[in-house]
Design goal:
The chain is an alpha+beta fold. The protein is built from nine helices and 13 strands.
Length: 313
């Protein structure tokens, strides 16, 4: 994905931490670490470091809330006919749903949109490597505290600190060859994460659906990308004794010279631990926080992100 590391970690066998979205029902993990992924779109992640008392669990389904609100994929005629039939059945059913069901779906939609803007609010609790007593982790803790970058990546592979973020459709790669910082690259997958339609309730209590304005859509994309970047940095700071975390958000765009998609960096930001220690994450605007840090971001309200260079140490 463009990062040059001495070692990089793919979080989950067979995929680049692209967990849950394409699986039937998978549970992975060992002592202290467990993740479950379902075809319903719900992901439950439980992470704990034995001997530290630290654990975290989260479960949420954006796919359910955003059902039918994403950009449509190209399909052949057979699939289109099948979808039209399913859509017709769904519409007939929806026409007879009580007002309470419409309101419930609307409120779920609002909660899911807010979730995209506040990914950064909840993060893993810090791991105190000095207090690790578990025999299996004691040796790893000593290496982490000595700044062994291989130990950093072993800790990442074991704890999977960003696993719950894959609920948002993003894939992550983590790496470093310097004990003072870690780099994280993630694919924003906006088409699969951010809806292009919005829901509202009419005066009679019926659910209304319409296309988002470009300004509203791209504003949500920006907040989602910035919020996810902050959250990824928070989780890395919680797990590893690094002073800086560099986040590189990438997206696939059409290369008009070749007619093929290519990956470009749309946001690159350097977060510093000293800054994070002073932030009340429940009250920030994620885009404003990113802009206050060393970063490259070229964002336009009516067209979204443009390719940028990457921040370097």
């Amino acid at each position: 994905m463009g990062l040059r590391f001495r070692k990089s970690i793919t979080l989950c066998k067979g995929v680049k931490l692209n967990l849950g979205a394409k699986s039937a029902s998978i549970s992975v993990g060992g002592k202290g670490f467990h993740q479950s992924f379902s075809t319903t779109g719900r992901t439950t992640s439980s992470v704990g470091i034995p001997g530290t008392g630290v654990s975290y669990q989260k479960s949420f389904s954006l796919k359910k809330a955003f059902s039918g609100l994403f950009k449509e994929k190209e399909k052949d005629n057979k699939d289109n006919k099948k979808e039209e039939k399913v859509s017709s059945v769904a519409e007939n059913k929806a026409a007879h749903e009580p007002a309470e069901a419409d309101r419930a779906r609307y409120e779920e939609y609002l909660a899911a949109v807010e979730e995209l803007r506040s990914v950064h609010v909840n993060a893993d609790e810090p791991v105190d490597w000095n207090s690790v007593t578990d025999k299996e982790l004691k040796a790893l803790a000593e290496r982490v505290l000595k700044g062994d970058t291989d130990a950093y990546l072993e800790a990442v592979e074991a704890a999977e600190p960003l696993a719950d973020l894959t609920e948002y459709g993003s894939s992550f790669e983590i790496g470093t060859d310097d004990p003072s910082y870690v780099e994280v690259e993630f694919d924003i997958n906006a088409d699969e994460t951010v809806p292009v339609k919005e829901l509202s309730l009419t005066k009679t209590g019926k659910l209304s659906e319409k296309e988002m304005t470009k300004t509203a859509y791209y504003s949500l994309v920006q907040d989602y990308v910035c919020s996810t970047s902050i959250r990824a940095a928070r989780d890395i700071f919680a797990l590893l004794p690094v002073e800086k975390v560099m986040i590189h958000a990438v997206d696939s765009v059409l290369d008009t010279a070749t007619g093929k998609d290519k990956e470009v960096t749309v946001l690159s930001v350097m977060f510093e631990r000293s800054t994070f220690d002073e932030v009340d994450f429940s009250r920030i605007d994620p885009s404003d926080m990113v802009e206050s840090c060393t970063h490259f971001m070229n964002f336009k309200k009516t067209s979204g992100f443009e390719p940028v260079d990457r921040v370097r140490i």
